[in-house]
Amino acid sequence: MTGPSDEPEAAEPLPAARVTRKRWTVAIVWVVPLVAAIVAGYLVYTRLQEFGPTITIRFRDGSGVKAGQTEIRYRGVPVGEVTQIELSRNREHVLVKTRLRRSAGSLAREGSLFWVVRPEVGFGTVRGLSTVISGSYIQVLPGTGKAKSDFTGLERASPTQGQAGLKLTLSTSQLGSLRPGSPVHYRGIEVGTVTATDLNADATAAHVQVFIAQRYERLVRIGSRFWTVGGVGVNFGLFRGLEVNIESLRTLMAGGVAFASPDDGAPPAKDGALFLLHDKPQSEWLEWRPKIPVAPAG
Hints:
Layout: H1 31-50, E1 51-59, E2 71-74, E3 77-87, E4 94-101, E5 113-117, E6 120-122, E7 125-127, H2 131-134, E8 137-141, E9 150-152, E10 165-172, E11 183-186, E12 189-199, E13 206-213, E14 225-229, E15 232-237, E16 241-246, H3 249-254, E17 256-260, E18 274-278
Parallel strand pairs: 1-9, 2-8, 10-18, 11-17, 14-18
Antiparallel strand pairs: 1-4, 2-3, 3-4, 5-8, 6-7, 10-13, 11-12, 12-13, 14-17, 15-16
């Protein structure tokens, strides 16, 4: 007889090993910083794309100009910003470093003019009142020359800056109440303005720089006569009574110039011509009636 089998029972199979790949999971706490970093990078890139050339403007006075706040404007549109302000080595000028926008890079050319617009209130002159609230800004008038990065700013803008017209010089022994901005009239119509006043080379007379708008420049002839106007004129006659002549408020405060041209067929005056400025007109000048065509309003 054979006994029970001495062979060991078959061993149970071992369980198969399961291999699982670990998946990288991003904790939700990192999503917000990641998105913020992407947005910040995009904004920085966009900002850098807007940057244009850096220029330096030299002024004698930097009052009202602040880094990071003062804008450069052209036709009322911001085209740049002041980035740094420092004194020159000789401490005689203020160096204003600015960065133009990329779209306004063509403004940095030879012939471009820069000046600071500040509030200005005086007799017959009110300018830049908006800067009381918004702050001073730098105005630019573009040139047409080669690219340039260093400029000398103007102390103030001429009231006729960038306009076409006739420039004249009037000579007088006493300046009186005339000042830059005083009007120039022809038959009571404002046709120009006083742009500057100064002494002549040997200080024997005062010179008044006058600008006549292009539309009216043909009114000025070689034989034209100029005289000062302003204030209040009082005349008394036995039969006509008291006559009081008052000019416009602007002329009353800031003075003004008037002129008349003869009807003798004299040719038009040339740019830079010199005329004598009289204290008052002669009666015959007021009777001149030349027929001079005026250019149409543009």
